[in-house]
Amino acid sequence: MGIIAWIVMGLIAGAVAKLILPGKQGGGWIITIILGIVGAFVGGLLGNVIWGLDISGFNFQTFITAVVGAIIVLLIYGFATKGSRR
């Protein structure tokens, strides 16, 4: 799957991850979208390396992988910025 497809999937995965994991991760929707894109890459990488998932197309398996990666990145970001909020 090309870089543009992963960016689009990351946008969608970031929105879904934010719906699944509501809270105050900070940064609003723009940061959430960026973290969703990063999460899609992380989920794709982990899915491919650890479980050997074929992430070559836009299907349900790659979408779930991207959403799980986005949730992981959102959780890490939330823990990393927890002390920096007022």
Low-confidence region ranges: none
Count of alpha and pi helical runs:
3
Count of strand segments: 0
Summed over residues and divided by their number, the pLDDT gives a mean of 78
Shape: globular
Q: Strand-residue fraction?
A: under 5%
Q: How many separate domains make up the residues?
A: 1
CA-CA gap between termini: 41 Å
Cα gyration radius (Å): 13 Å
Order of helices and strands: HHH
Structural class: mainly alpha
Helical residues, percent: over 70%
Largest sheet, described in full?
none
Describe the structure.
The chain is mainly alpha-helical and 86 residues long. The chain has one domain (3-81). The chain is globular. The chain has helices at residues 3-20, 28-51, 60-80. 73% of the residues lie in helices and 0% in strands. The mean pLDDT is 78.
How would you summarize the topology of this molecule?
Layout (H helix, E strand, L loop, with lengths): L2 H18 L7 H24 L8 H21 L6
